[in-house]
């Protein structure tokens, strides 16, 4: 199984494996490149804030905000992968998300991890 066949955390369109673990079974870290991150800040529009306010009074999932957060996380992760690839990496280990409110204007999402070059272990 090559890295392109490894299903854990790899986007089918990506040549960069992203995992939350320290290592990848069957592979060894050949080179550590260093920290990489993808950052995006999204503002909330008035309609979603009003809708979320009303929904919070009666309970239930805030589907519009959920959709926005998923899109925001995906954008941050895409930027992380671009940065790892640009620096010569084919994997990001110890992947994490950090989400912060940005001065009541929006939400900052940062995807970060350690870019590495991994190769199959010799049997």
From TrEMBL:
Q: Which InterPro entries match?
A: UPF0145_dom_sf, UPF0145_YbjQ-like
Q: What domain of life does the native source organism fall in?
A: Bacteria
Q: Name one Pfam family in it.
A: YbjQ_1
Any transmembrane segments, and where?
none
Q: Which family does it belong to?
A: Belongs to the UPF0145 family.
Could you identify this protein by its name?
UPF0145 protein AB852_35030
């Amino acid at each position: 199984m090559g890295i392109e066949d490894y299903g854990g955390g790899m986007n089918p369109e990506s040549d960069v494996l992203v995992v939350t673990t320290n290592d990848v079974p069957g592979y060894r870290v050949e080179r550590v490149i260093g920290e990489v991150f993808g950052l995006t800040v999204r503002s909330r529009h008035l309609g979603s804030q009003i809708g979320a306010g009303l929904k919070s009074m009666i309970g239930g999932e805030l589907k519009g905000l959920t959709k926005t957060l998923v899109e925001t996380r995906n954008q941050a992760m895409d930027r992380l992968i671009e940065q790892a690839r640009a620096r010569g990496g084919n994997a990001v280990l110890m992947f994490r998300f950090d989400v912060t409110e940005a001065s009541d204007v929006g939400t900052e999402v940062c995807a970060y991890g350690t870019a590495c070059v991994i190769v199959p272990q010799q049997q």
